[in-house]
Structure formats: C-alpha cells, structure tokens
Amino acid sequence: MSAEPHPAEQGPCVVELKEAGPEAAELLSILHHAAFEGREPWDAAAFGQILGMPGVVVWLACVSQSEEAVPVGFIVSRHVVDEGEILSVGVHPQWQRRGIARVLLAHLVGRASQIGETLFLEVRFSNRAASSLYEQTGFWQVAVRPRYYEDGEDARLLKWSPR
Ligand SMILES: CC(C)(COP(=O)(O)OP(=O)(O)OC[C@H]1O[C@@H](n2cnc3c(N)ncnc32)[C@H](O)[C@@H]1OP(=O)(O)O)[C@@H](O)C(=O)NCCC(=O)NCCS
C-alpha cells in the first residue's frame, strides 16, 4: 500500500472510480486487510473466487498522489436481474472520513436508480460507522439475521430501493 498518511482533518478529497477485474484480487486483499484491520480477512484467493462469480462488480476509489492515481478504497457487489447485493466496502484507515465510501456507494445507488435495481447488504449491529453511512445513503433496515457472523453477532439486513 503506497498511500501516505492523510489525516481525516484534511477534508473531502477528489476521488476517481475505476472498475476492476480479477487482476485486482491481490490489491483488494491488501485494501480489505487494512480497512478491516485484519478482522474478517479475505485473502487474494478468496477475492479471486469472488471476482470470478457471475454478476460480481468491483469499483476502486483512487486518489491523486504525485500525479499517480492510488487506490485507497473499494466496493464489491453482485448483481442478478433487478437485485444487487453489496458484498464488501472498505477504505484504507489513512483515508477514512473523507467522503470516499460515500462516493463509492453513491455510484452504485446512482446506477441502481437508473436501471430500477433494488440493493441489499448486511452490516454488523456494532458497526455504527457503516450503518450511519448506509442510512445517509438511503438504506433502511428490513430484517435481522441472528448470529449471521462467525463470532455470533447479528446482522442488520438493509435495503435500498428506487421505488
Ligand atoms: C465504513 C467505512 C467504509 C466508511 O468509509 P469512509 O470513506 O471513512 O466514509 P465517509 O467519509 O464517506 O463517511 C460517510 C458517512 O459515514 C459515516 N461514518 C463514516 N465513518 C464513521 C465513523 N468512524 N464514525 C461514525 N460515522 C462514520 C458518517 O455518517 C459519514 O458522514 P459524515 O462524515 O458527514 O459524518 C470505513 O470506516 C471502513 O472501511 N471501515 C472498515 C470496513 C467496514 O466496516 N466496512 C463496512 C462493512 S458492512
């Protein structure tokens, strides 16, 4: 990860989104590890498998650094007919609280809005930062999945709909 420290106080930054394919598996595993601080690790092999699944789409959020676009965040989703599921979203800790996840989500929601797609995702009850991000973007809770995570924590099932 070549991103240099950028404290959150620096405010919003310019984000460029790039679609990625299976070649990004290694990079995604590094970003995922950094964002989740080693919890819920998805290694490159896991990302390789996920990226090979039909309907899976990955967007990388890149920021400009020394005239280079450096990837610092990602969103992975899977789309089948008129439904999409957000599988993972993360931003490198050095770049959090600068509006990057909001840009990634807004991109998916914008596309879903255009094609009439409903989006779903699961989030830990304890993950207030992510819940706040999703609710700001227009997601709302439709169900609870008891003991959804390996450690026994429940998940909130959130939905976004264009209708
Ligand atoms: C959740 C995460 C993706 C947010 O990324 P981010 O780029 O920092 O988020 P943004 O700067 O776009 O913030 C958008 C909104 O999310 C909420 N938010 C983000 N981080 C937050 C935090 N640490 N505490 C409280 N709210 C937070 C706020 O409502 C924020 O809006 P505001 O800055 O106007 O208050 C990031 O913290 C992360 O990678 N976390 C670890 C991985 C993870 O939990 N992924 C989600 C799994 S479901």
From TrEMBL:
Q: Which UniProt keywords apply?
A: Acyltransferase, Cytoplasm, Ribonucleoprotein, Ribosomal protein, Transferase
Query: What is the protein name stated in its UniProt record?
Result: Ribosomal protein S18-alanine N-acetyltransferase
- Coiled-coil region(s): none
Matching entries from SUPFAM superfamilies are given as: Acyl-CoA N-acyltransferases (Nat)
Which family is annotated? Belongs to the acetyltransferase family. RimI subfamily.
Q: Name one Pfam family in it.
A: Acetyltransf_1
Task: Give the E.C. number(s).
Answer: 2.3.1.266
- Could you tell me the gene encoding this protein? rimI
Q: Where is the N-acetyltransferase domain?
A: 15-163
Instruction: Please verify whether the record's keywords include DNA-binding.
Output: no
Provide GO CC annotations from the record: ribosome
**Which GO terms fall under molecular function for this chain's record?**
protein-N-terminal-alanine acetyltransferase activity
User: What is the source species?
Assistant: Bombella dulcis
Q: Which InterPro entries match?
A: AcTrfase_RimI/Ard1, Acyl_CoA_acyltransferase, GNAT_dom, YpeA/RimI_acetyltransf
